[in-house]
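Fill in residues.
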């Protein structure tokens, strides 16, 4: 286990810095957009991030095969930094939609490089645990982002600069560890349909992970603002969700290595449904914070276990293509999260946030049960 983690320490650090920057920029954009745009417009604008996110994996195998994993991470982080610096200079829906499209593309391509790097060097028996540590690093970064947002959200431009700096810092670990990156051999192709053949439950859960993640991550700050929380309260609301996801992440990965992936997925989806129902009926600040913590504890670990489920059946030559496919599936699910949540909240009010989460978790229970019976 120690050797496996040592082989991927660089990309674990990359994940931490990337998600710190991404979490900070998402909060900044969500709060600023709430004061300027209507819910439907916010949902459409935020969905452009996931359009870019879903498009990038289509190019992942070609780009990484041509320039390598480390160079891909470096270039995409520079693009993400430039985009977030430009956003405060043009606060309008068309410009922000374009910025979010480019940002989603850059971050998604970075994740393809990082995740294929991990899956290339980690054996199946340890994949759930190592991938959960990778996801824990992301969630730790997102938690730190909420702290940074709560401290400095009142600034006009400096928080955007800080987010850009975090993206730039993410380049350092991979530049220091280029010798441990996977070889430059051209990666073999692997289609999306093949991922569903390899693991129907894992592939479908990846889509639902993107859907639920984007609902909570993109519209969590909007929901918190709509129910009356101030800037610090929004940071606490999102911080609890992410911190709970981090606490559950590694134990869930260990259990998936020990007792199997599907039973753990089913338990997480079932618990997530209960947490979303609690959010629907919760009254008062304490109940609201408990509900979002429980929801985050269930939503954020799904992707690691789903990805490990698929990669258990993937050959070494197709790791990059598999990572591209999984990020694509996650991105496809993520596109619909902001769109659906914006429309549902516009029609049903803030409660639509938890209603949509509950429906997503129920779909996950169905997918896991049907796959098991098959």
């Amino acid at each position: 286990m120690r050797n496996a983690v040592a082989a991927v320490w660089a990309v674990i650090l990359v994940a931490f810095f990337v998600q710190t920057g991404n979490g900070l920029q998402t909060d900044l954009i969500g709060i600023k957009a709430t004061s300027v745009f209507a819910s439907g417009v916010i949902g459409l604008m935020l969905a452009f991030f996931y359009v870019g996110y879903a498009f990038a994996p289509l190019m992942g195998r070609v780009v990484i095969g041509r320039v390598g994993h480390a160079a891909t991470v470096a270039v995409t982080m520079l693009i993400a930094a430039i985009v977030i610096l430009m956003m405060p200079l043009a606060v309008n829906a068309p410009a922000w939609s374009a910025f979010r499209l480019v940002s989603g593309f850059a971050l998604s391509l970075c994740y393809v490089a990082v995740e294929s790097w991990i899956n290339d060097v980690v054996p199946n028996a340890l994949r759930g645990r190592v991938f959960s540590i990778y996801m824990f690093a992301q969630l730790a970064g997102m938690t730190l982002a909420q702290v940074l947002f709560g401290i400095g959200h009142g600034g006009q431009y400096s928080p955007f600069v800080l987010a850009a700096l975090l993206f730039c810092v993410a380049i350092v670990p991979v530049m220091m560890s280029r010798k441990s990156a996977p070889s430059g051999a051209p990666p073999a192709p692997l289609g999306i349909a093949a991922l569903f053949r390899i693991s129907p439950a894992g592939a479908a859960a990846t889509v639902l992970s993107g859907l639920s993640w984007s609902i909570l991550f993109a519209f969590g700050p909007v929901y918190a603002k709509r129910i009356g929380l101030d800037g610090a309260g929004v940071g606490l609301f999102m911080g609890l969700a992410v911190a709970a996801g981090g606490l559950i992440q590694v134990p869930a990965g260990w259990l998936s290595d020990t007792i199997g992936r599907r039973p753990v997925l089913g338990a997480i989806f079932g618990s997530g449904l209960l947490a979303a129902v609690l959010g629907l009926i919760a009254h008062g600040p304490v109940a609201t914070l408990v509900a979002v913590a429980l929801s985050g504890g269930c939503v954020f670990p799904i992707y690691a276990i789903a990805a490990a489920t698929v990669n258990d059946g993937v050959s070494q030559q197709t790791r990059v293509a598999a990572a591209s496919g999984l990020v694509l599936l996650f991105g496809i699910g993520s596109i619909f999260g902001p769109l659906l949540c914006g429309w549902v909240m516009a029609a049903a009010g803030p409660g639509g946030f938890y209603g949509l989460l509950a429906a997503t978790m129920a779909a996950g229970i169905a997918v896991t049960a049907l796959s098991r019976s098959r």
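The two ends are 33 Å apart (CA to CA).
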